Prior knowledge:
By secondary structure, the protein is mostly helical.
Amino acid sequence: MILIILSVLLLLVAGGCACVVWAARGASWTRTVATATLAAGEPVRASGRSGGNCGRDADSDG
């Protein structure tokens, strides 16, 4: 079972490296993926901002 998990992990790492190399060579799909990623992350960023000082100590002196 461990061998299967490690094999899958190795394939994912190798695939990620291949994507980075391919993107560095100027693949056109990278801009589309980046745009989609930013668009998908926008609601998360917006929800983080709407909390105001949530998680911060307003009275701290630094």
